[in-house]
Amino acid sequence: MSVVLPLIVCAFLISGCTRHSEVVVETPGGTIRGIETDGVHRFLGVRYAEPPTGKLRWKPPVPILKWEGVLDADEFGPWCPQFDFERRQEGEVHSGEGWTIFRNVPSNHASQEDCLSVNVFTAAADGTKKPVMVFLHGNALGSSYPMYDGTDMAKGGVVYVSINYRLHSLGIFAHPSLTEDAKPDEPLGRYAEMDRLEALRWVQRNIAAFGGDPTQVTLAGNSEGGAAILQLLSNPAAQGLFHRAIVQSGNGWWAPLSHQQHEELGCYLASLSGLNGCDSTAEELRSLEWSEIPATGPYTIDERQRTIGATQAIESGRVLDVPLLIGWNDFDGSSLRYSPQEVIDHTHPEVLAAYDTNKPMQDLAYEIYTDLHSGAPARWVANKLQDGEPVYLYLYTYVISWDRDSVRGAEHGYEVPHALSTLEEMLDDTFPFLSKVLLDDEDRQMTYVMHHCWLSFVKTGKPSCPGAPDWPAYNRDSDKLMKLNLEPKIVSGFRARQLDAQEMHRSHYFEQVKKSIRRLLAEGV
Predict the structure, then answer these.
(1) Structure pTM?
(2) 223 is catalytic
(3) What is the second-level CATH architecture of the domain 3-57+115-523?
């Protein structure tokens, strides 16, 4: 049970004085001291595993089960190592179908390798067990980014947890010397997934102390975080760690590298880092500064913990059976990292025939890319899983007021601050009162709609949106989804011709990815 201590701390900001009270909670691992602000208890930067540095780099996370004394949790932990995405043009960015390598891009100032932490947001204990939401961020940010704040989720009656986990080449990496160094049964390569599993185990052990119900955990995420959830759904090690899932623009179609191919890629990255390729030792690799290692993150299987890829597992029904909310944004193509011409060149002729090729090339490419990487896989997943627990399919189309004259639709990730009700916090973090200048009533109404859609799913396993009709579970025969905008509505057969064509020829896409990877391994960048 949390105890509010008498100490009050006042931080004088432009917006006034924010009052913070200390709060203490007793967990199975020990005592944690956080802060209370505006009725929400925050426990920030709580380590769930030992620092993955030195000999623990590219090793499964080592859980922290107990600690001595009182653990202070009043500040966010650092983001896991990553480059500064806004400055990527200062380095080298090389992309192909299914892969991207960032080299010599400046590091993000907020990140460091000692980063495995969770944050918990919860209202004061009231004797009830609250549903839990664990959110996985995308691969260019960290859990302390204002977009992922859990204040309004906590005010809505949910215990909200955000986590940091290894990213890019520190989170997905293989090399012959690391394989040789590992124990015979030790999982390899997919360290980001291992971190997510360990964070979910931390939630199972500890969340009841924060008022959360460990039997009602919803795992949610966008972009890479959404893709990670589909991968966890197909990983038997995740059994019992979460009970509902929300996948926001999370792909679902992958042609995984074998472990041998992953090792070959690791040899190449070692060479780019100044080492001797496949002859680099584990000690040499672990002695590199993390910023010296080119950043990439292909989808792989390690042939130990994972013997088949997530797409194959979903295809064959070998997944955890939980209620699922899944969908995409109508301009997810904003995340495109290679040229529009390449998109069109790599598209199967019968897929291309399903589109209006008289459109400007850039418009056509963005449309194809959105369908291929987000829309068609989301609908395909819904179709494959429809015979189990209910699956709810959505399309998000709302464009923020100040962007309506400059973008093609709802960009990749733009639904997140509406769903978590963090849009105003994001803007005011940049400059206090900025939200009052930029947001209009429609923007705030969209946040109200989306936030309650997500809250209802976390609490009940079925989304219910203000002002919307009843949201039916997905069925391929009726092919219905919820179109999320200011006035949500049910749509049948949305872009059926295009999405059917993408699904029918997804093997062509997989072959394009495999060719691109083989070319990278043979020729480099």
Answers:
(1) 0.94
(2) yes
(3) 3-Layer(aba) Sandwich (3.40)
